[in-house]
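Entry 14. Structure prediction run on the chain below.
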Amino acid sequence: MIGPRPGEKLHEELFNPYERPQPTPAQKIMRAEHPRLDPAWEQETFDQVNWLVLDGDAAALAAKVAELAAVRQVPPALDPSTAVAADVPASRDGA
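Output returned:
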């Protein structure tokens, strides 16, 4: 057979839609730059998953994982209006 096979990929997507490829010192190697997650959303999400695991609620945990997978492309915490500036360190004590 000559040429691409049926269904064969001719192009590979290496970055998510919200990531921006950035150069590195190594030629042909790029790194992904993306907006920071909202720390409050991230903490709340991990807390919810943790409680579901501790409660042993497999059905609710599966539903939460499915919900997170559905927003995987652009998590709600990456809303530009609520994004945390990358150059401002976040305080752990809320001050």
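Residues 80-95 have pLDDT under 50 and may be disordered.
Filed with the rest of this week's runs.
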